[in-house]
Amino acid sequence: MALTGIEIYKFLPKTNCKKCNFPTCLAFAMKVAQKTVDIGVCPDLSPQAKAQLEAAARPPIRLITLGADKSKVEVGNETVLFRHEKTFFHPPALMLRIKDTDAPDAIAKTVTEASAYSVERVGLSLTLNGFAIDNQSKNGATFADVAAAVRSKTDKPLVLMSTDPAAMEAALAKVADSKPLICEANKENWGKMAPLAAKYKCPLVVSSPDGLDSLANLTEEIAKTGIEDLVLNVNTANLSASINNLTLLRRLALKKNFRPLGYPVITFPGLATKSVEEEAVLAAQQIDKYAGIIVLDHFSPALVYPLMTLRLNIYTDPQKPIQVQQAIYPIGAPKENSPVCITTNFSLTYFSVAGELEASGFPTWLVVCDTEGLSVLTAWAAGKFDSERIAKAVKALNLAEKIQHRSIILPGKVAVLRGELEDELKDWKIMVGPPEAMDIGPYLKQMWKP
Fold this sequence. Notes:
The protein is α/β, with parallel strands linked by helices. It has helices at 5-9, 25-33, 47-57, 104-116, 140-153, 165-175, 190-200, 212-223, 239-254, 276-288, 301-314, 347-360, 376-381, 387-396, 418-424, 440-447, and strands at residues 64-66, 73-75, 93-99, 118-121, 124-127, 130-134, 158-161, 181-185, 204-207, 230-233, 266-267, 293-296, 327-331, 340-344, 364-369, 407-410, 429-432. It contains 16 helices and 17 strands.
């Protein structure tokens, strides 16, 4: 868990030497606790104290990285049980399982389609995060060839699924540069799987069917060999087992600081269910509580899009709304006589308005005011979308230089601001638009006369 300034202070030399450019050791400790300065800035900190501090400050759930370069995925490193306490930091990776017994053409088609699938929502691109290649054939050469074929079709992270160390090494020899996740080590094969993780510098899944006690013992044994990047595979065979085990793991890691189980978790909802609908329900639960990697058995927009949207909603900071930058956004190809609409910088508001303007076919200048990510009515009620702010944005963005006319269209729900805004922008005509975004197109066609 994160250390307080007082806890960090206990490790410091307490000489107030100012070599760290802070007046006292306590002041320095407070800055370290706030993560604004590194503990290594203290030149007199003993190696033993530094090692103890680093061990004590280690996140309760280890951060694991899959893949390399721009497509890499990070999971783990969570610090709270409930997002309203602070926030969740690393969304679970959604991956698709590929069987090495499927026809090569079918594999290539599935990987290409799934890898290219992308949906825009509130300015973000939602996609699948990678692929898990399952050694159903029990043949090492086939497994390696399919892994290489998938790798040639995508740069997304891979999970290699086999309990056979020989098959695993054959696949690693072809795709190790992508830093795949090795899945998996158990009490029978870990002595051969752990060296592969060390050799190829890849994270390793650890599994035990005998319960969490056995799993903890196994992770401790593997950790003794120097392998620290571990992922857990526990019983998630149904809704009850899934929520019980995943919640228990999270509580043990965060509340008890139980290091042997302080790792992210991988789940396979498709292997535990009999239909796509059941898979979707179990996967949704695991996004909620508290999977790090979720491997799906099916790919279709009807399954994937709701899960990606759920993940987005849960893994956004509840204290910081999703927002766009204050700016003038051209919708279509607006000209000097095109209309000007005003809205807030809450992402959902912006994209709703922008989408309706695009659909209307009416080129428009959309002025977005910084309301700290609040929607129109919420921002108005909070005093963050008033005539003064709007006028300030219009002037700061040099709107007058882009257009010949002097007309601005306010959202209908804040029509009350019209008079005040006319006082702030004396040379401008203030129009009141419709209350709902869906009515913007008809409103412009009827009311806009440049």
